Amino acid sequence: MFYTSTRDKTVHVRSAEAITRGISADGGLFLPEEIPQITLSDIDELSKMGYKDRAKKILPLYLTDFTKEEISDCVDGAYADGKFSSEKIAPLYSFGDGVEILELWKGPTCAFKDMALQLLPHLLTTAAKKAAGGKKIVILVATSGDTGKAALEGFRDVPDTKIAVFYPNDGVSPMQKLQMVTQEGGNVAVFALNGNFDDAQNGVKAIFTDKNIADELLKHNMMFSSANSINWGRLVPQIVYYISAYCDMVADGKIKNGDEINIVVPTGNFGNILAAYYAKEMGIPVKKLVCASNANKVLTDFINTGVYDRRREFYVTASPSMDILISSNLERLLFILSDCDDKKVRKDMKELSENGVYDVGESVRKKISDLFVAGFCDDVGTKATIKKEFDEKKYLCDTHTAVAVNVYYAYREKTGDKTPTVIASTASPFKFCAAVLDALSPDLSDVSDEFKKTEKLSEITGLECPRQIASLHEKKIRFDKVVDRKDMADEILKALL
Ligand SMILES: *Cc1c(COP(=O)(O)O)cnc(C)c1O
After folding, report:
1. Residue 105 C-alpha to ligand 1 middle, in angstroms?
2. Does domain 88-110+235-429 have CATH number 3.40.50.1100?
């Protein structure tokens, strides 16, 4: 299996190189040249296995230049006993009405990004041995919250790696900040930046492409790589859990092997739903992929019209991990649906960066609307959904999951489509405690301390706050440095060398 670039079809590399480099030199994203297939009898076989064994069967289809033993070691390291609070790793919760909630937040940081970021460091260090002469990998992250913590936790004390994270000093939630500044591990560094998320992102990009810094690192046998969802190594672990969810439904007798399902995903950068698309194209019988957005509904408009237009107001919402106007992973879908037309992708992406808008044209638009359904839900709808599902079903959703639940039921009502459905649940409700508590009990909004809020939420719902969040206030603050944009590079070198 080889990988090419969305912006240059002549690129032809192995998965180890795609993963180590993160992004192609032409600015495009790496993707496999063909999509491997699984049959119904493969699904039967997978249905009898646990999560780790399923991963060990599925990942080799994409990572053909890794040995079986290497993949097995990576998977065993990522999903080792005790790392995830569910033995099933990504369990289904039966919601009723033929709906299953796929709970992807049982990992160390309580958000779905753990599913990939626990595995990526293992894939990356294995890949670097093959493709980068065993150089030490330095991961740089600009984060608006969830990615930074999940990456820190994934790379913590992984041999031959270092990780540095920048977050905007006033741009993350108090709980997210505390999660990062108390980070443990001998190879980690965390900095607050005077500025917003864009400043952090631009600063990190500038360091990535700075030749002097790269040369300095090379002298110490180090190189940069990316833990961002543009890295194929972050996408491929996500395909596994959609296949696994289908297998669980077959194994539990909820569907017969071969029956169609719908998959609903709360979407930001288009990574998670793209993984569901890959699962469908591999052979999982999927009728519709439902793309759910919050008030930043650039994807809803795109899927419904074929015009991607980022020239619009940006909203800060109760589901901040979906507050995104440029969904990077969409580029991979456009490449596939335009029959690998790299020139067209280059042109559309150039228009997006220069004018903020592009139109994919009728034939691609038609293919998208056959595959996807899109809808959105604002904060009022999000909070109403959290309250309704808790009152009626005693199920507590976080704000991102609530967007998906809301969009799904609106779709079901409009179309009468009662196909069995999997809704991806992307975070623990305790991670976005303030908004969830406000949805259930607006009268408690004067409780200002984050930990009091989690206690209140436990009290009202009878649910236990995950230990990783409840125990944060006992942890020592290790990183209290606030840096200016111009000092980022110096700080990185000081921390690394
Ligand atoms: C990152 C994130 C999302 C969005 O996922 P994408 O892959 O960017 O579409 C949704 N919910 C939560 C909680 C997240 O952390």
Report:
1. 11
2. yes
